[in-house]
Predict the structure of Major facilitator superfamily (MFS) profile domain-containing protein.
Amino acid sequence: MGKVDTEGPPPTKVVPDVTSTDELSATEKGDAALQILRQSGGLQQPLDSERSRRLLRRIDYHIMPLICVVYFLQYLDKIAISYGSVTGLKTSAHLVGNQFNWVASIFFFGQLGFEFPTIRLLQMFPLAKYVSVNVTIWGIILACFSACKSYGSLLACRFLLGMAEAAIVPAWVVFTSQWYRKEESAFRVGIWFSMCGWAQLLGGCFAYGVATHVGGDVHASLKGWQVIFLVLGLLTVVVGILFFFLLPDSPAVARFLSDQEKAEHVERLRGNEQGIGSQTFKWDQFREALTDINTWLYAFWIFAANIPNSIATSFGNILVTGMGYSKVDSLLLVTPLGAYEIVVLVGVTYVAMKTQQRLWCCIATHIPSIVGGILMAATGKASALVGYYLSGGIPIGWTTILGLQASNVAGSTKKITVTAIGTIAYTVGNIISPQTFQAKDAPRYLPAKISIVILYFLCTVDLYLIRLVYVYRNKKRDAEAAQRAPDYVPEKNHEFLDLTDIQNPEFRYSL
């Protein structure tokens, strides 16, 4: 297949009402939205703002709770290893030296190894069904942690857990782009990503309860860390099974929407210039994803921001105990980090939705996180703890990147590839992350804290560069549009031909 023309008009034909054999072929090669329009016969009446709002509320009611619950469990299951570290896991498994660091890191080796296979499987199989199977499998694996009594068994379970969770972030980006318009997606990503904060908040309270009631009972048949893994694992299995039956794979098969509402939904998404998805893998889109500078700017932010990520996941409790607090108290003291994260994620993404300036909002929110990193490195106890909480603002950048991947990356294969590359950057950053907390640097871990400040600064600069690229491309396309003939008319249904953001000259990037 030839090289993709990065800024010229796409070599596609006009798609009128989809009825003929040739047009049906175009439907198969294009987006699933074309199939919806063909089956429904299009809108019976124009879509007004009130009907659009009513449809949006209906989608929020049926979709958001499900994807929020699963993302909540995904993060809670990931940080369970941190709770285990202060409730007896290290002693029971006879971990010494930096072995706990490798138990934390190997999760991301599993995620890294399975990331590219999973992006193909996400396109091949019904999206929600594939994810639900993965959720159920990771719940079973998590429950198996309660039987781990050695370094080797912990490594094996963490590796398998990473493989099972590899599908989540790419799938959630696709879900968001399937169901929401560009101006709606940032706030919705903020909502489901804020589940990380809720997991930090509620998970810490749960672990504290287990530590004080089970951990203090010498006659208990299960230790505190075993109870944590068993309860969370079994809960995840139940949610995975429910997810299989409750969440539709795409708007095209959503039982809670009538045929006319599906057509209305397609019209709502027309302005996204990217439809609702295609199961056809396109090599030209794959190559374009690899050569687009934004792919690597996204990836750099994700990589750099996740190197310090252990302060919230596997090393959160250890870091707080190093500030001079007890192990049991650390289970509660980490919870305000989650509360601050919730406020920042929901509040800032809401402001970004209203102002349509998500990148400026995100850059502004990074500044307190840089200050927090400095406080952790330069001060002790109470001041360092405040700095630890301020670092909870950095995930706003992660939600911004995910939102940009949902709204500013078009083309089904390109979107899933860009998201997978970002997830690989995420896993590599998280593999490195625990290794920055070397046992010889305990209890302050000063080198790790200094690296946090530097990385947060670089992340902020990266966001500014992403915005510069968007502004440049939008201005260039606006200038090209101004030079077109007055009678120029865009191709009919070009929004649903599964074109990439670069192939489609009508596409404009959200800032």
